[in-house]
Xylose isomerase
Amino acid sequence: MQQLLIYQSLWAMERRRPDGHEWTLEQKLAMIRDAGFDGAGVRFFDRDYAREVTAFLREHGMSWQAQCYPRSVDELKPIIEHVQEFGADHINLQADVRPYTLDECIPYIEGWRRLADDAGIALHIETHRDRMTTDLFFTLQLLDRFPDLRLTADLSHYVVAREFAWPISDENHALMHRIIDNAWGFHGRVASREQIQLQLAFPQHQKWLQLFMQWWEYGFRSWCRRAPSDGVLTFLCELGPPEYAMTGADGHELSDRWQEAGSMKDSVRALWQACADAGTRKAAAQEKAQKAAAA
């Protein structure tokens, strides 16, 4: 049976408050566990950090994705070694290079994929600003060259970078659907055409929240058609600290990101279940129709 795992980003647990108060790593991990997340997004470039975090998650029956930001092909090698030592659902790679042409990208993509394939580790390339995938059109050209490229779709970056007008045009929906059809994981954040991260409960932001829920629903259905019957899809709640999060004149955030992460988790889990129920009903109707035709 296909499965959705919802993770919480440890980066998103940074508070960066004016008073300087931060949760300890132990507190963060316990909060993620107690809130009902299935795991966490873990930076894997620090071996000691990765060992400590994954030991806790493993002890509590949770899982994780390994996040990295290589600037060369070789910089992926220690990440792979850490994954081989500690495990991971997959490597989430932010390509920290900015080639000007598509041809310049090819050695990076081919090199990273070769290393991951040789190690037998799933590799996803994240869509993100100020990375190789910063521009929507450039990333679509990457998909022209590598049609089987597995993406982690963080859709918020393209909404801001392209300044999508409201309502979203059919053309822009189609472009985003093409990105989503190559997504093998999602990072969760809601943006508008001018803000990278909106407060989820504010009334003026509900149209953008519903837009992202619609894209994620499309993504779940698309993934279910492409993935094996025992496949696992991950969704990382990634509501970042300031300056991703908006702050007032006092430096404090305008909303509670931790509460919002829990709300996102519950909404996305319900969305997945609705998609699964709809798929079950469709399969049952098809089976019934086939039996009727055979009779």
Notes: Residues 55 and 86 are 8 Å apart (CA to CA). The mean pLDDT is 96. The chain has one domain: 3-294. The two ends are 30 Å apart (CA to CA).
